[in-house]
């Protein structure tokens, strides 16, 4: 199944307005507060053979946080094992997008590709948190590939790829990444997390582990060491 969900927000009269939510099938979107949208799964999967796109467009000055109501469970299809989920995130000048959903669980025999294409303009900023859990309880994990492309004003700032088969060792089941653009950062480590400063400004943190909560804690601690912050990125 092919599906597409589009969310558009803009800044009007001193506040962020979610102007439109279109599409669906795999996911629906609901505004749950000022400047906050939650994704809700409305169909099983993605399953093998599915191609899912989630597109978010923020106009100049808008502030939006995107969350999810629960984890995304990726399973193999009856005919083919592989599925794709694309994030197309466009942030215009002086806008701020905080995209941080619950983990993606890649079940046994599933093969899943996650693509994130981030287009920024001017002083637009984005925070993108991606978390992957390989397998359910007492189950071997599937295969996962994550690709991230960050571009500002047409100039590439980051091209990054992770593959589960290159990371899984010593029982590793959790892969988590955090990307923040437009911040001053220094390299840092915490536990199994490594934070790297981007040449054009920004921060990329990668963490692996055997337990989700412990890996999350390492990731966020390394991010705070590399680029301290005292407030959330996206506020209405």
Structure write-up:
- By secondary structure, the protein is mainly β.
- Residues 231-236 have low confidence and may be disordered.
- The chain has one domain (2-226).
- The chain has helices at residues 164-167, 212-226; strands at residues 2-12, 15-23, 27-33, 36-41, 51-58, 63-68, 72-74, 82-91, 96-100, 104-106, 111-120, 125-134, 143-152, 155-163, 174-181, 188-190, 193-197, 202-209.
- The strands form 2 sheets. Strands 3, 4, 6, 7, 9, 10, 12, 15, 16, 17 and 18 form an 11-stranded mixed sheet that branches. A 7-stranded mixed sheet has the order 2-1-5-8-11-13-14.
- A hairpin with a 2-residue loop joins strand 3 and strand 4.
- The chain contains 2 helices and 18 strands.
- The protein is globular and about 50 Å long.
